[in-house]
Structure to design on (348 residues):
């Protein structure tokens, strides 16, 4: 099965000209080795920012965590402590390790302080092209010339973000999943001018911090994960909108069938295991009956228009109480931790 290096060793066949890559490598600055990466600049203190800071610190890296105010840094440390407590409760770390892990993270409120000595930058600030460009243009000037600049964008084009940079070959996407300290996947996505070296070292770094990296051959909106997630959400909403089943029935179907299986065999492995002739037959009559609308699904549009944004506003596709949310979050966290225990390869 294709995994890891095999995936990006064929990348140039899919969207990159060999000559283009060679040119970038030749122009590129001194190559960074995995062992050279010691200091991480973590931009952002929100949902993802605190989690990536913690993930690097757990793996032994020194982290400068940039937030725009002391208040946001304090909030981030509060979230980091809570996540460490969860780790401790589940015996993933010892009580004695907590102070040491926290000691590796320094909160800073200027980009100068954040970028000083950085070998690797991971950015998790607002999903806004102009803001990301502006921040990276500044950070690039503050970093050494071989520092790798990675964005945790959910789907913006790395080529578009890197347009304002001098060292486009050092720019890459490292897309973590929420919460980053519990979800193993990181999608490593090259922009048009990202060098192979940058992809390779980012991939290796993600593996070193205990993640399961996947390298894309070329950039595509939504990368892999969000393309699959949105295709599934569109059909799930369509099933409800077309009166085929209730939201509860859709979620139950997924949780007790595909959801379980997909965590051990992906959709392509599952197709091979089920028999491609079977999937061919199903595809020949079913695909034309599935939703293929390019528009935002009506139910999603209406809910957002009236401010029903899901659990955080008390209603969305379901009604939510704070207790419901707390309960389901805890259940999900416990199950994710069991998975983490099963597949973790590094010891903190
Ligand atoms: N939330 C997720 O599930 C998820 C998953 C993967 C990737 N991402 C991506 O990670 C990034 C951050 O998302 P989040 O969910 O953590 O958002 P968030 O709103 O929780 O945090 C955003 C952070 O950016 C800071 N910020 C906003 N504007 C800024 C500016 N002009 N300069 C400096 N800092 C600024 C905010 O203060 C905050 O710390 C986005 O690109 C998002 O698409 C999010």
């Amino acid at each position: 099965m294709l995994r890891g290096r095999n995936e990006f060793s064929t990348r140039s066949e899919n969207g990159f000209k060999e000559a283009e890559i060679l040119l970038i490598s030749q122009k590129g600055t001194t190559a960074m080795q995995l062992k050279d990466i010691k200091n991480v600049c973590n931009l952002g203190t929100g949902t993802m920012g605190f989690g990536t800071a913690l993930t690097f610190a757990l793996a032994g890296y020194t982290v400068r965590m940039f937030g725009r105010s002391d208040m946001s840094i304090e909030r981030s440390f509060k979230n980091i402590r809570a996540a460490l407590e969860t780790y401790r409760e589940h015996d993933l770390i010892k009580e004695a390790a907590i102070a040491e892990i926290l000691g590796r993270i320094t909160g800073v409120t200027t980009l100068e302080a954040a970028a000083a000595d950085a070998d690797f930058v991971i950015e998790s600030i607002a999903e806004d092209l102009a803001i990301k460009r502006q921040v990276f243009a500044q950070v690039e000037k503050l970093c050494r010339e071989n520092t790798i600049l990675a964005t945790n964008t959910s789907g913006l084009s790395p080529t578009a973000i890197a347009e304002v940079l001098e060292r486009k070959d050092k720019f890459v996407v490292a897309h973590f999943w929420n919460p980053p300290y519990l979800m193993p996947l990181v999608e490593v996505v090259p922009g048009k001018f990202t060098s192979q070296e940058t992809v390779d070292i980012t991939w290796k770094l993600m593996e070193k911090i205990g993640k399961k990296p996947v390298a894309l051959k070329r950039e595509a909106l939504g990368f892999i994960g969000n393309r699959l997630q949105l295709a599934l959400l569109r059909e799930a909403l369509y099933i409800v909108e077309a009166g085929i089943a209730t939201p509860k029935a859709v979620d139950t179907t997924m949780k007790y069938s595909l959801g379980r299986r997909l965590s051990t065999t992906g959709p392509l492995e599952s197709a091979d295991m089920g028999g491609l002739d079977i999937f061919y037959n199903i595809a020949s009559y079913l695909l034309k009956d599935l939703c293929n609308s390019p528009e935002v699904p009506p139910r999603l549009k209406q809910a957002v228009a009236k401010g029903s944004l899901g659990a955080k506003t008390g209603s969305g596709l379901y009604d939510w109480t704070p207790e419901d949310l707390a309960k389901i979050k805890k259940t999900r966290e416990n199950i994710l931790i069991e998975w983490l225990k099963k597949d973790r390869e590094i010891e903190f």
